[in-house]
Amino acid sequence: MGRKWNNIKEKKASQDAKTSSVYAKFGVEIYVTAKKGEPDPEANRALKVVLERAKTYNVPKAIIDRALEKARGNGEESFVELRYEGFGPSGAMLIVDALTNNVNRTASTVRSAFGKNGGNMGVNGSVSYMFEPTAVIGLVGKTSDEVMELLIEAEVDVRDVLEEDDAVIVYAEPDQFHAVQEVFKQTGIHDFTVAELTMLAQNYITLLEDDQTQFAKLIDALEELEDVQQVYHNVDSE
Question: Which of 8, 76, 134, 237 has the fewest CB atoms in 10 Å of its CB?
Fold first, then answer.
């Protein structure tokens, strides 16, 4: 289970190095999620998840407020949610989620990123069956035993609670995301090292050095695309 958190941590570190791009992508995601429901996180649970995740990436309040205001003002820009599946070096599996206002552009750029970096696109379902939607919430200041006790007392079921790299990481079903966070907020914990609804691989693979280098280039190429919001994979980051 530990390698799952390492992959998420590695992704966060990579995205933290591209702050302006990451902030722009969050602006789009917040706008789209707010437009799909209410622009109020208390009435729109999906929006609340996005805002909680944005907090862990230190997205400026001005960007969040601008996206919400655009949604409240009935912005006319329309986006489509897309998911691509594909393979990298040595059979590495990838899922790419995108938000776009130009489907043809996004399909072309994603396909190009795969093709130029040792990968190839797959059909729908060729990869996703090996991944599980998962809520991942991390915090500091408590031990795994203390966290587990809090969750048991609150009657909140989770998959696992582990201590990893000075943090406690909780893995849960996606529909338990808010319930898990609420348990901690009741004890005064409002800041989380990670707060993600993600796709975690059921099994991870380790690549040889040359393939790892090629794979890193593929990930970078995909994450640098304007329309790509998330990239999930089954390669062990350790």
Answer: 76
